[in-house]
Amino acid sequence: MTSLTPQKRYLESVAKVLIEPLMKSRGAAWRLLDWDAEQGICVYLTDGADVLLVELEPFSIERPCTERTKMFNVCARRPFEPATELDEQQRLVVRSFVELVRRREGMLPDIERPTTARKRAVRLIEVERILVNEGKGHYYMNPYVGCTIGCPFCYVAERADMSRAMEGLPAMEWGRWVDVKINAAEVFRRQAKSSAPGLVRMSPILTDPYQPIERRFRVTRGLPESMLDTGYTPAVLTRSSV
Fold first, then answer.
1. Nearest to 58 by CA among 45, 70, 46
2. 109 burial class (0-12, 13-18, 19+ CB within 10 angstroms)?
3. pTM to 2 decimals?
4. Per-residue pLDDT tens for 201-236?
5. Where are the domains of the chain?
6. Is the CB of residue 139 less than 8 Å from the CB of residue 39?
């Protein structure tokens, strides 16, 4: 079933409850580089040289992580050097972020998830941001959220469901739902004007850029076209035969 009326997405406003102090912080040695809330909450921090990726996942006592709060597992790593352990300063930065989450997670709205009898759901959404800065000239963006290919081994399914829960959307089996970012190209062009050009990754993690629904909506096709003459370079990975 497809919802034909485009909807504003409120996920970002919910996530901002947690990270708003970082967005307002000025003059700290480590600052907020960028963030994303589509697969759990991912926060990129930088001191101008190094980059830390701190991810909030659903709470699980069994799953290994860096720290835990009442609601989340917190995982931290250096995205460009994943095999390198954090140094003491970086661990202090992560602990500071964890304390921020502990202070503010109780402020998150208590949203009840509705039940649904739908077997499939396609939602058209309008987003405020699409380009996420990973640091060091690298970006990523997701033309869609969710994936109808529905690989059973996909590790992001639980994290994507956490984001749906934060927005008050019903739980649905992975592979049965997808959000279509109908204003993706327009938003990219706006963001590109205020960001330095770099490599833009679209890869099959949270979504597959060329999943079958692309034949209808052609969101992925529109994004590389929007990069022409901008200095940005698209890098597209897919499990589809295209």
1. 70
2. exposed
3. 0.93
4. 998 889 999 999 999 999 999 999 999 999 999 999
5. 2-8+116-236, 11-107
6. no
